[in-house]
Design brief:
Layout lengths: L1 E5 L3 H13 L3 E5 L2 H8 L6 E5 L7 H10 L6 E5 L4 H9 L4 E4 L4 H15 L7 E3 L2 E4 L4 E4 L2 E3 L3 H11 L8 H8 L10 H15 L8 E4 L3 E4 L4
Parallel strand pairs: 1-2, 1-3, 3-4, 4-5
Antiparallel strand pairs: 6-7, 7-8, 8-9, 10-11
Helix pairs in contact: 6-8
């Protein structure tokens, strides 16, 4: 899943970005709302983490502007302002949730997960394809009741496929969801990580049917008959 982090405090943003990436999110970080706005007009994000006290365009204006563009990405607002009036203003302008600084990063993660579940109408917290199960809350992946250890990027790739079981996903769709905007468009990262997943999900379970498939000329999918 992809996160747009808009935060001008580098001392906060750098460890937060690192934490998010460790939790298998692809993160684009911008220091100001103008750059973030130019990104979100053309890129898909699952959630925006937005500081309100930004230089230039502030967070309130950013939220109002993207809602005016009919962009419905959930917004989690971060701010040192703790007045009821500011909270109401933030929510009225399009924010879904509001956390006052200082905060625990793990609380932000929990709030993020809740907003993403709500936005995607996910009520079943488990993704299952045949004997393969992924729990997006605990990040535990199992096949035939055996836990599978995945790196952060492997997990993000697998989660994206399992959110669309039986559907052919193009390489560009995978890149857009799993990698940030810094990925070289000519990179072979998708093929490399697909190989890693095939080894861990399929080859290490010879008694189970292969689940990850390449549809030549179209893309990749998990599950399905073909």
């Amino acid at each position: 899943m992809r996160v747009l982090l808009v935060e001008d405090n580098e001392r906060l943003a750098k460890p937060f970005k690192k934490l998010l990436e460790g939790e298998s999110y692809a993160v684009d970080w911008r220091l100001n709302a103008e750059e973030a706005y130019n990104l979100i007009l053309f890129e898909h994000y699952d959630i925006v983490i937005l500081d309100l006290a930004l230089p230039g365009m502030d967070g309130f204006t950013f939220a109002k502007t993207i809602r005016g563009e009919k962009i419905k990405t959930p917004i989690l607002m971060l701010t040192a302002r703790d007045s009821i009036e500011d909270r109401i203003k933030g929510l009225d302008l399009g924010g879904e949730d509001y956390i006052v600084k200082p905060f625990e990063l793990n609380e932000v993660l929990a709030r993020m997960r809740a907003l993403i579940r709500r936005a995607t109408n996910t009520t079943d917290l488990l993704y299952t394809v045949d004997t393969l199960t992924l729990d997006p809350t605990s990040h535990i992946v199992t096949r035939a009741n055996q836990e599978i250890r995945l790196s952060g990027k492997e997990y993000a790739f697998l989660e994206f496929l399992m959110r669309h079981p039986g559907q052919i996903m193009t390489k560009q769709q995978i890149i857009d969801s799993v990698w940030d905007t810094d990925l070289d468009p000519f990179s072979n990262s998708v093929d490399v990580y697909l190989g890693y997943l095939r080894k861990k999900i399929d080859k290490e379970f010879p008694g189970e049917k292969p689940l990850i498939k390449t549809i030549k000329g179209f893309g990749y999918k998990i599950g399905g008959d073909r």
